[in-house]
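task queued by scheduler; priority normal; single chain, no ligands, no partner chains; default sampling; output format set to structure tokens
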Amino acid sequence: MRWIILAAFGIALGYIVFLQRKLAAAERRGDMYRDIAQRLELQLAGLKTQ
């Protein structure tokens, strides 16, 4: 019985780590897209002033 509880705890812990890594990757992608959008806005503003 003890081993089942420890195995369940280990699986839950592994799943939490997996979800944290997935969230961090999504945040990095969001930052990347935000940076691209900012650069495009600056380029567009530069083209409008010309």
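post-processing summary
- DSSP finds one helix and no strands in the chain.
- Residues 2-49 form the longest helix (48 residues).
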